[in-house]
């Protein structure tokens, strides 16, 4: 009887993390038809892009409308562009009940038999007879990802959230796009019930989660679930382990660890700026850390440290960690325009790795040599990169002057 042996050198172990999917929490918003845009804002009006969304071609507009039901009003509700064939209002169940609209759960675009509302814009009201839905949880998935998972458009999968609470969604519709990021969309009610937020991770459960080697043999491998923990106090387990990573794995000096502890103990010392420490955990093991700031005067984030332990690299965890960092900054500081990313030139080869990593995320290098040296000087030589979070974000001399003034206050 033939017996096939698994050759560990021919196994693609990286595939075990292909089942992880970031969560995107969707707040109430409105999609407008071209006709309704003109009724609300004036003839020939074009929506203004405030921020590009993960689903390419879609954007959050600067314009907002009021959504009026029989019992109340939701003010300044964001419009998501571009224009659609039909106007659609997406609310959570809590939002719908609050303004007196019967909550109806539907997939996007399935509007027959749904209730209507009144929309109020600068040029007056628009009455829509149908189009208000509580959107069913769904996944937007890039085609390249879907091909890896062998998932077809409009196929249904199960999604498991293993955070503070364990929640499983069944019959989750997958909508495949040629471009854009893969993201599991739930509304604010669902996020609150599951104790999760944008940037947290869930697991897609589809058919059988199996991995085969190059000979066709099934390899038994567990699927990791990554949790992100905000550091609040230095004695928290995740914070202590994160500091240990900085010391033992990334070889950061003790002085930096001491400064981190001081900032956690005395956050008011750098006010109005904010300091954050975030760790990534696989089960109970801390496998990554990020330390970052919000610079209040410059309206920018500053990522000082971000790293994944060597054995957990090349699995996409670094990208997940970065996106969780930006989701925290955007949620807590709505006026943020972009993020400065620090790459230390003293780190040798690792500097090049981090530079490529940030470039792949859409960041661009900042040529600080262009600016007066007496205003822009670090204690050690670093490369700065910039990732805009808003479409009209600009990094000019004035903004950098504010950023470096803020950094002098927070870095000490």
Automatic annotation (TrEMBL):
Residue span(s) of domain N-acetyltransferase: 233-390
InterPro entries per record: Acyl_CoA_acyltransferase, GNAT_dom, PTAC
Lineage: Bacteria, Bacillati, Bacillota, Clostridia, Eubacteriales
Naturally occurring in which organism (per UniProt): Thermincola ferriacetica
Protein name (record): Phosphate propanoyltransferase
Cofactor: Zn(2+)
Catalysed transformations (reactions): propanoyl-CoA + phosphate = propanoyl phosphate + CoA
NCBIfam families per record: PRK15070.1
EC number: 2.3.1.222
PANTHER family registered for this protein in UniProt: PHOSPHATE PROPANOYLTRANSFERASE
Annotated family: Belongs to the PduL family.
Keywords: Acyltransferase, Metal-binding, Transferase, Zinc
Zinc is among the record's keywords: yes
Superkingdom per UniProt: Bacteria
Molecular function as annotated in GO: acyltransferase activity, transferring groups other than amino-acyl groups; metal ion binding
Top EC class for this record: transferase
